[in-house]
Design a protein that fits this description.
It is built from 11 helices and 16 strands. It has 383 residues and is α+β, with helices and mostly antiparallel strands. Helix 6 crosses helix 9.
């Protein structure tokens, strides 16, 4: 779901200046009559505490003032990257007498930017001008020029080191976004505090296993399960198999709409992510709600989730809306962590025939009645 140009909802990332300087992350949800969200102010000076502000607006006016009654301030615990009480973290900041208890935030937004200005009861002030995320725009990542058809793709992946890369297939060259962000949500704190409790209640009534979300392995398995069954989460599905990714890239495309269509612009996309290099170069933060921007790779237990093993599934966990821009901007020494391969749509019949010979079908990837019916539908109706 694309972000309405006239709305403040979404994720805004940039820098702030004023009494202090640092990075700022603003995650905003639209709650019909007002906006609600979380702001993270990540201080450049390690001797100062980073903070989180939880806020809501009075209405949806483009110019707004958020007073102390609509705003809560919490420090970030540097040990956990989550909020904590000031008395539990002040020992790390001996030069800071107290944390601001009250603040006033003024701002306005238009089709391209969000402007914020704030002042606190302990005399601090700051401001920022943030650009709108590009997450809902087409991908700017060019595909690998030498791989333009299925034959070249097979030759290319045959030479890759096993399990060095993750792959993800998409019907179109859309930017990488989680289903949570595509659904128009941004505030992961709200997701954790509100969505998850309802999900756990309903899912536990339908599974043999009762998930304990306090255990990291079970927490990840739970989110993976609901993700695989269609609930939007901040996870993104990948696979170790380039051929499984190809299946998903072509999945659901109707052959009747692509016959005799050899327009090279009509392509599916397979993303290729160097997960080995990424994990070596960047810290992996297996958390949903945190002040640190991150894209982390997790392999979770397949509890109540028969699909994970045949799909050779892996997940990335992230609090970032525009994943493409984030990854491209983190290229030390011009490393290419992320690459794209675009394959022509008209090759779908050949691709699916060969994948079937490899044992990669809906029936094998989705154990159960749904997968069996999808496979037979493909076979008998040439979808």
């Amino acid at each position: 779901m694309s972000q309405d140009v006239n709305e403040m909802k979404g994720q805004w990332i940039g820098r702030y200046t004023g009494s202090h300087e640092g990075g700022i992350i603003v995650n905003i949800d639209d709650l019909q009559n007002f906006y609600q969200g979380t702001v993270y102010l990540n201080e450049d000076d390690v001797n100062l505490p980073s903070i989180a502000l939880f806020f809501r607006t009075k209405d949806k006016a483009r110019s707004f003032t958020i007073s102390e009654s609509e705003l809560a301030i919490m420090p970030i615990d540097r040990r956990t990257r989550t909020t904590n009480r000031w008395e539990n973290v002040k020992e790390f900041y001996p030069k800071v007498e107290s944390l601001a208890k009250k603040a006033e935030v003024k701002g306005d937004f238009d089709n391209t930017s969000l402007k914020l200005f704030w002042s606190t009861d302990n005399g601090l002030n700051g401001s920022c001008v943030l650009e709108k995320s590009k997450a809902n725009q087409p991908s700017e990542l060019a595909s690998i020029n030498d791989i333009k058809n299925w034959k070249k793709f097979k030759e290319f992946v045959a030479e890759l080191s096993p399990r060095q890369f993750l792959f993800r297939g998409q019907n179109k060259p859309w930017r990488l976004r989680t289903s949570f962000h595509r659904a128009g949500r941004a505030d992961i704190n709200r997701f954790v505090n509100e969505d998850i409790q309802g999900l756990l209640k309903h899912i536990s009534a339908r599974t043999r296993h009762v998930f304990n979300l306090d255990l990291p392995n079970e927490n990840g398995a739970f989110f993976n399960l609901v993700q695989h069954h269609g609930y939007p989460t901040p996870l993104m599905d990948w696979t170790y198999s380039p051929f499984v990714a190809a299946f998903f890239a072509y999945r659901g495309i109707n052959i009747n709409h692509i016959e005799n269509d050899e327009d090279s612009s009509n392509c599916v996309r397979i993303y290729m992510f160097d997960q080995a290099a990424w994990k070596s170069d960047w810290e992996q933060i297996l958390m949903l709600s945190t002040n640190a921007l991150h894209l982390s790779i997790g392999e979770f237990l397949a509890i109540e989730n028969e699909r994970m093993i045949p799909q050779q599934a892996v997940s990335t966990i992230t609090n970032i809306d525009d994943i493409e821009t984030y990854v491209i901007n983190k290229h030390p020494d011009k490393k290419e962590y992320l690459r794209a391969i675009d394959l022509p749509i008209h090759e779908r019949p050949q691709v699916y025939r060969e994948l079937s010979l490899m044992g990669i079908t809906a029936g094998s990837l989705f154990p159960g009645l749904d997968g069996a019916c999808e496979e037979l539908k493909e076979r008998n109706f040439e979808i």
